[in-house]
Every structure is written in structure tokens, then in C-alpha cells.
Amino acid sequence: MPCFTKFDILSLNLVLIRTKWIVYECKAFRQFIFMFHLVLIKVLRRIRVSTMVLSRSESRILYLLRQEQQTSIAELSRLSGLGKATVARAIQTLKDQHRIEETGDEIRHASLGRAGRALRITPDSECYLGLEIGPGLVRIAIADGARNVCSYHTHAINLPTDADERIALLMSIINDTLKKAGKTIDKILGVGIAIPAPVDPYTGEISHSVMVPEWRGVRLREVLSAKLGRPVLVDNDANCQALAHIVWGNLPTDQTIAYVKLDEGLGGAVIQNGQLWHGLSGRAGDFGHVTYDPHGEFCRCGNRGCFEKYLSINAFLEQVRSIYPEIDLQQTLEKLRSGDRATERITEELGFIVGDLAAILSRSIDPNLILLGGRFQEFGDDLLEAARKRLHERNPHAAKIDVARTDEFLQNTGINNDTILGAIGLVTTANPIEEAVGR
User: Fold this and answer.
1) Which of 86, 104, 117, 135 has the most CB atoms within 10 Å of its CB?
2) Which of 437, 433, 435 is nearest to 121 (CA)?
3) Model pLDDT for residues 176-217, shown as the tens digit of each residue
4) Residues forming beta bridges with residue 304, ordered by sequence position
5) Beta partners for 267?
6) CA distance readout (Å), 276 to 242, 419, 426
């Protein structure tokens, strides 16, 4: 079926108007033109208008549906600030283009009275591609417009030393994944990439990281976007993990949240009103390199006594191995669950240090919530209770501190990887992805 842009429709209308004036004296022909004009308008409304041209109101509705997943017309009107008539017209256009659909459910919002019909993005109308780049591996996932993860693969790789060859390897993985999933690149709305390194929010350049030193200085966003012809967004993996709790979980989108990630190192993120806050250089949330002890040991960043030297999996195991040599993390956690007093005491000390960091965050950022992510949830309640106790001692007015629970939304998606879900979230929360025309 042919596609007409809005400019084609306008041109046809102008031609018809001129024709009317030329043959104005002919009453029969004038009536014919009038009827033809009405029929033409009805036909054009049923033809799929080119999906590359969206009005601002249509683009806004799609953006909100990507964030809300499904909601009603009344709620879309409230969230967008647009009038109900404008929202209704935009929704009808998007329905005609098969971009959105009714789910058959009803949604009731406490502030909006009666229930409304639920709308969502049509699953096969668009897809989102997410990648996680780590030491010696690349993970890749595709989610459809309804956020169903329809493809997920892990590739163990030996990265070439040449930058162009590394990019070619990524392109090969992307193209192979699309082919296996039966998708084409024109269906991909955008690509989100998570990487364990600081990323300049303005240039997209990747800074030095001991985890992936070979990507230093590469502007991956720029290079891949040029090759794929699609928007590409690149961010730090801790930022992506935090974003996953907003996009796929149930964290509020109208608050400030400080996210602290425990892993081999210590990272974090700051979220304001549902959006990542990057700061000047993209290092906002790099809590691991805040000073804990100015006279402590040297850190890999060159400073002394950073929190990461005391608050990380490696630091924790170093203390445990002074009592139980050669023990690994899994064995340590088993001892902790069995009530071993030594590991309980070390875990409690770890919790006190978490509380010290949380106190700094509560005094400097003053967030609504301090969320402990990464591997914190494996340590049980002892660590959390110690952290809360120390935080209350340092700042009685501080916000709540809690452990991020990923089980529910990871189970719903079918993949145990909040990092790559956050990478997909980079695309769904970008505003706007489409090229909108003013209307």
C-alpha cells in the first residue's frame, strides 16, 4: 500500500482548491470535485501515513507509553500536559499507524475517577536493542514494544587490539542476533550499551577503566550510530543497573534516589525524577572513590583510603581469608547463613562502613531513598541492620536505606541480568527518540 506524507496531502488539497476556481462556472463539475474531495480525505485517513514523520504530541504519547508500559487516555493527558482532544487525535493517528493498541484491560487511577481503557505500544511495531560489554564478554538482548525480551545471548570473546576490528566484531554480533531473532534494523528504535567505565555524557567518549582498558578513548556512541543508522546511547554499567529498577521495577519516578552498587569494586548512580544524573564529566555516583580514610592504603585511582578499599567483594574476602584461607565468596555466604560468628562480625563491620557512606550521601545529596544494589542482597539482614544503625547515628534525619530486590522484575523478563535491562532502558527513557515535526 502506498505511503503518503502530510506534505503530499497538503499538496493534493491545494491542487483541488485551484481546480475548483478554474471550473467554478460548471455546477456539475463543482459538485463532482466536492464529493471527490470528501472521498479523498476519508481514503487518506485510512492509508498508513509515513511513520518517519510524527508530530510533537504523537512523539510525546509514545515516549510516555514507553515509560508507563500501559496506561489510559486520561492519564496520558495528565502526564503530557496536553488537552484530552489533542491526546485523542494523537492516539487515533498512532492507532491508524499500528504504533499503539488497546490491551482489553481497564486502568483506574486514584486521582482520575472512573476506569479507562488501557493503551500500550504495539509489540511488533518497534524493538529495543541492549548490549552489555564486559571483560572478555558481550551480552546482547532484544525487547519488543511491550518490553517482552525476545532474544538474549552471551558471547565469550577475545577482543582484537585494533579499534576498527573491535567495532566490526560488535557489528557482527548485532547483525547475527537480529538475523536469528527475525528482526531488521529498521524495526530497532535505538541501541543502549552498558560498559564498566565512565562515559562522557556530552561526547560519548569512554574513559579509562581497569575492567575494559581497551575501550579507552573510543566514542562508541558516535561510531556505532553511524554504522547502524540508529540512535545509540552508552552509559556506565552501574547507571544502567539503577535505571533498570526504574524502567522494569517499581521505584517512584518523582524522587531522588542514590544507588550504591557492591561488586568486585564499588560504584553507584544518582536518579532524579526517573532520569539518570550524570554530572559534569559523567562520574556522578562514583561513590567508590569518595575518601573514607585519608591516611589509608593507596587506591587504584591514585588516592588514599577510598571507600572501595574497604567496601567491595574483594575487600570483604580479604578480611575473611585472614581467618579462613582460600575460602571463596559462595563458601563465605554459606558460613554466614549457617551462623558462623566470625563471618557475621565481618559482615556487620561491612554494614557499618555502608552506613558511613550513606551518611555522606544523606548530607550531600539528601535523597528520598538510598538503595543498595549489586551483590548487597546476598548478605542478608545483618549488613542492612548495621548500615541503618550507623546511618541513624550519623544523621537521624536521613532517608530510608534499603536493599534493591531484583528477583521480581528479573523473573518477569526471563533473564537474570539487570545491567542489560538498564541498557534497554536507556532507549525507552530517551526523550524523544523520533524526529518530530511541530504541531
Assistant:
1) 86
2) 433
3) 999 999 999 988 999 999 999 999 998 999 998 888 999 999
4) 298
5) 261
6) 8, 14, 9
